[in-house]
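Homework help board

Subject: predicted structure for assignment chain

Our instructor gave us this sequence and asked us to write out the predicted structure in token form, then describe one feature. I got the tokens but I'm not sure how to describe them. Can anyone check?
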Amino acid sequence: MLIFVCPHCEASLRIAEKYLGQKGRCKKCGGRIALLGQADATAPQRASRVGIEEGGEAQQKTKTSKPATEKQCNYLRALGMDGAALTGLSSVKASEYIDQLRKKKRGQEPPTEKQLDYLRRLGASTKQIQTLSSKEAASTLIEEMHLLPTAEQLKYLKSLGASGAQLATVRTRGHAAALIDELSTTINN
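My token output:
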């Protein structure tokens, strides 16, 4: 089984490998997706949005005039959209609203326990975790934790007195930040 993330609603979808390369709809929001990715991937892959296909103007009008699916409407209601605003809504517009509301909601929701646990496994410091205020901030920190440390971080660690052995273990920005926090706390105490 492969895991794809819906570009419309961010839902994780478990997909059998035989569907790789095909188009379909998200099981959660009904948005059109293409399952383009790698068969041997172990990490979640991002599904592609299915845009207007070849065929010109006539097909574009047909595509945009299709009404929103019931799944899309239900999902928009769950995201807090007023039921009256759903009247006459096209499928394409519903997908756009889903994207907007998901981004807004992610910025307001606190980080999940799963995100916090993952950050701890990545080596984030207690200070870094305590300052997180939203899912979006946690996602940003997770991404940052995977990047190589900056030259400034390494220089600062040296100025804090990090040993060669400590510097040799620093593989990511997250580890560098955690070591900076640790050494700063030791110096301040």
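Reply (TA_rk): Your tokens look well-formed. For the description, you could write something like this. The two ends are 50 Å apart (CA to CA). That's the kind of observation they're looking for.
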